[in-house]
Amino acid sequence: LSGAKAPTPSAVNRPKMFRVAVLLGLIAVCVAEVEHCCSAEDRRLIQKQWKVLWRDTSSSKLKILFGRRILLKVTELKPDAKALFSRVKIDNPEAPEFAAHSMRIMNALDMVINLLTDDDALDEAVDHLADQHAVRAGVKKEFFTAFGEVLFKGLSRVLDDFDGIAWKSCFRGILGKIAGKLQA
Amino acid sequence: PLRLTEVVALRLKSVLKMKTLLVLFAIACVGGVLADHHEHECDALTRLKVKSQWVRAYATGHEREDFAKAVWRAIFAQAPDAKTLFKRVKVENPDSPEFIAHILRVMAGLDIVISILDQEDTLKEELSHLHEQHEGRHIPDNYFDAFKVALLHVLPAQLGRCWDRDAWDSCFDLIAHGIKGH
After folding, report:
1. Which of A88, A117, A141, B28 has a CB 3.0–4.6 Å from the CB of A179, allowing a cystine?
2. Cα–Cα dist B140/B148, whole Å
3. Could you tell me if B124 lies within 8 Å of chain A, comparing CB atoms?
């Protein structure tokens, strides 16, 4: 090169550069946060851990039991939610109607989890679930928060291998989006 | 040292055992043949077989997407008109996230009924739920037939040699019958 040195930043420029550096630093931290939140590794872990529940031929019985427990627990914590499940006979949890419904909820979870590695299709599926819940009067956002808590607690008991941080980092966003079209 | 009579007795015993085994084997064969005649029924054992084969075929993650896409390609190859039912979910672009999410929803519905094939009451309940969901859509019977042909075409590709066509044939009919309501 011609030997021209890069101009040394003048005293006037220094605060500006400092601001740029701070901004860049903030961006780096934010990207790291997003990256950590439901990262590719988190998604892979969730899929791997969830698979265990579905391996066995008779696992549908376990899934129904698990789904039923979750719904009963959520409605115990949020009594206003109970009436929403009267059509599927929540008052008689042993009824086939409630068994089938418990299975549907577990199956929706399964669909979402298996789509974790296809972001665009996952968004579409979650959006559709949001629509399905938005048309049901009386569904509240807080029910989904409770559902998440009960689900994580339940999973930590049925899965020997359960990475709570990975599950929470992905499901907070997913449950938030499913509840995203609700009024209350 | 064994005496000759003992040796003879032992041999006789083992020959008898062999004979018993042969007789049992023959009964098992005849039973098998007879059972073959009944294989067009989706009975308890057939349901278990379908369930376990489904778990393998249905797979997970991207493999599941590929499985679903293959089934739908085979459906539209037989019944191109069926595409009109899927306009809202962007069937014209089968790789679109809308279409993928949709076909996975349908497969998930099939997954529910197959996994509860061995729980009669719950199965009945789910089939009537699916019947209600399909009732208003006026799906012609030949679309269900196309679905069956497509599924029975793609399944062996997923499962290799270990799949039982008759079992699927009969259990799919039971499911389709429940969804159609006739």
Report:
1. A141
2. 13
3. yes
